[in-house]
Design a protein that fits this description.
Length: 591
């Protein structure tokens, strides 16, 4: 199915050509959704911007366009307003046929991408032996949703976990591991050292206090680099321990990721520096090798270098990212590479992107994008902390969401006089709790900071996961009450739209493709959330005004209308389910 917007665009293109000749073929009709329903559904603003080029009054341009515009199968006769806006109102018959087509399509009318790409989404990416913090949670949730949306369009997505599993801190950790668990290095395949973060702290304390230990740690780094067997094994044990802890979170959140950490690129780092040397960009500065950046300067106004080899000979985060970029282009064949991290890393990305471009490592057909996001704040507006002032552990945070969801559910069950089985309660609480956390994150424009509030995200009202899930459950309830098999409703019925709220809902349903096309490009999942929130609201208005199962006063109810409305309900539920699944959120039939 071609989206309404794209159909209209094609018709305008023909009209431009017919009215003004081939010169204007391909002119952007500047079509947008009408801001106010009284102006119709879509509006073209092109006439104003063509005035100069054509040497005509915008209104006259609009008139000529409209004379040549063949859209009578889609819209009512267009209206020209103000200086030259062209207002379009969709015909009910068009909406009816589109909805019927959407209903019978498993993709709900969303076409696959015409040119599927190989895309890398680099997300989550916590650091070994350190806490996976709320920033990583945001990256995980946003990155997963972006990957799901791109996959839905048929892109070949490689979901990469660029874990921080390399660096000098491992010298300290391995040296400490040797002291406290010497046996682990020779016997264990896996190790249970409990809390790895506490282990890290103790190792750090030991490192700071003891110079001999510092030297041992440094030697461990050298041994690790050289590939000494027992040092490597210790490193692996530490990574394995972290991996198990991260996996708990990924399992809860249903996140699929391929781990390819920084260590993977270690053998490729020397070549990055060598090849940079060949480009002539590399400069030696106080013993370090670096590239001076265009457009970046320090406080004194001096140009800023991007260091790729430190004076001690070591490589760093940027060198690794350059190596990873080359690998993803050359070996993975990626043509779009997306990095999801907090906006604090924006300059890091801008800097190594620049070096890659200037070095000629970025083919024209490859797009690299940093997808930044803001901070997670506590209800006091400051960086989120526990009541005791510690950093929040993700496991605790997710657990609390589930516990609170269960409490809310218990209260509601009591109010409604319902009794439910333990299994039902546990499942609903888990889905609602985790969805609430994901949705609260995704529904905000990712560029801004957001306040983490359990009360807000778990509320049944407002732009929340529970509100959305409830709209879905409502439709399933209608189905149960009317003993409807939604799978077969579409076979016999045709959509007939009569009431205002029904038409409004239909128009909104048909915008799904346009919205998803937008997110595919701008990678802003909150636009999908807004769409779903509007959908739930419009559905609730429809449901209040339009009887579905039987007429309000008990009079005879036209069977074809009943079937049509059931189809609209079903389509709403399917759209909610699809939309939520693209946010990584699953639905329940009852709650
Ligand atoms: N490990 C990094 C951190 O915790 C994030 C890595 C993001 N990906 C990348 N290719 N630099 O901040």
């Amino acid at each position: 199915m071609t989206s309404t917007l794209n159909q209209l665009k094609a018709r305008f293109d023909k009209a431009f050509t017919a009215a003004f000749g081939a010169d204007l073929t391909g002119t952007d009709p500047m079509l947008v959704l009408a801001t106010n329903p009284k102006f119709g559904d879509y509006q073209s603003n092109a006439a104003m911007s063509l005035a100069k080029k054509l040497g005509m009054k915008p209104r006259d341009i609009a008139l000529r366009v409209v004379e040549n515009l063949e859209i009578s199968d889609i819209c009512q006769p267009p209206e020209i307003a103000g200086p030259g806006f062209i207002n379009l109102t969709l015909k009910p018959a068009y909406l009816e046929s589109q909805l019927t087509a959407m209903q019978s399509d498993s993709r709900l009318g969303v076409p696959l991408a015409e040119n599927p790409q190989r895309v890398v989404v680099d997300f989550s990416s916590p650091n070994i032996a350190k806490e996976m913090h709320v920033g990583h949670l945001r990256s995980t949730i946003i990155g997963d949703s972006i990957a799901r949306i791109l996959e839905f369009f048929g892109h070949d997505v490689l979901r990469l976990n660029h874990v921080g599993d390399w660096g000098t801190q491992f010298g300290m950790l391995i040296a400490y591991l040797r002291e406290v668990y010497p046996e682990a290095l020779t016997t264990a395949n896996a190790l249970d050292i409990g809390d790895l973060v506490a282990f890290y702290k103790k190792a750090k304390q030991r490192f700071d206090e003891d110079e001999i230990f510092q030297e041992t740690a440094r030697q461990e780094v050298v041994k690790l680099q050289a590939g000494a067997e027992d040092t490597r094994r210790a490193w692996q044990l530490l990574c394995e321990q972290s991996r198990r802890e991260f996996q708990v979170i990924y399992d809860w959140l249903d996140i699929n990721l391929t781990e390819r950490g920084e260590s993977f690129y270690n053998p490729l780092l020397a070549a990055v520096v060598e090849d940079l040397e060949k480009t002539g960009l590399l400069v030696e500065n106080q013993g370090a090798k670096c590239v001076f950046l265009d457009g970046f300067s320090n406080k004194e106004g001096e140009p800023l270098p991007l260091i790729v080899k430190k004076s001690d000979g070591g490589y760093n985060y940027a060198t690794t990212d350059l190596a990873a970029l080359r690998y993803r282009i050359e070996k993975d064949g990626a043509t779009r590479i997306i990095y999801v991290t907090d906006s604090g890393q924006s300059s890091h990305f801008a800097q190594f992107f620049q070096v890659a471009k200037r070095a000629g490592w970025l083919p024209e057909n490859v797009e690299i994008v940093h997808v930044p996001f803001g901070l997670v704040l506590g209800e006091d507006g400051k960086k989120i902390k526990t009541r005791a002032g510690d950093t929040v552990r993700l496991k605790d945070l997710l657990n609390e969401a589930i516990e609170r969801a269960e409490k809310d559910l218990q209260t509601r069950l009591k109010e409604e006089g319902r009794t439910e089985e333990e299994g039902f309660i546990k499942n609903v609480a888990k889905v609602v709790g985790l969805s609430a956390v994901k949705y609260a994150d995704l529904s905000q424009n990712r560029n801004s900071n957001y306040i983490f509030s359990f009360d807000k995200m778990l509320a049944l009202q407002g732009n929340t996961a529970p509100y959305m899930l409830y709209a879905y459950v409502r439709v399933q309830g209608i189905g149960r009450k009317g003993e409807i098999d939604f799978d077969t409703v579409g076979d016999e019925a045709k959509v007939v739209l009569t009431e205002e709220s029904e038409l409004t809902l239909a128009k909104h349903l048909l915008q799904l493709t346009e919205i998803l096309n937008g997110v595919e490009i701008d990678l802003l999942p909150h636009r999908l959330c807004e769409y779903l929130f509007e959908l739930s609201k419009k559905f609730n208005q429809f449901y209040e005004q339009c009887p579905v199962l039987k007429s309000k006063d008990g009079s005879a109810f036209d069977e074809s209308q009943r079937m049509s409305r059931l189809m609209v309900c079903d389509l709403t539920a399917k759209t909610l389910k699809l939309g939520l699944s693209l946010l990584g959120i699953s639905v329940v039939d009852r709650m």
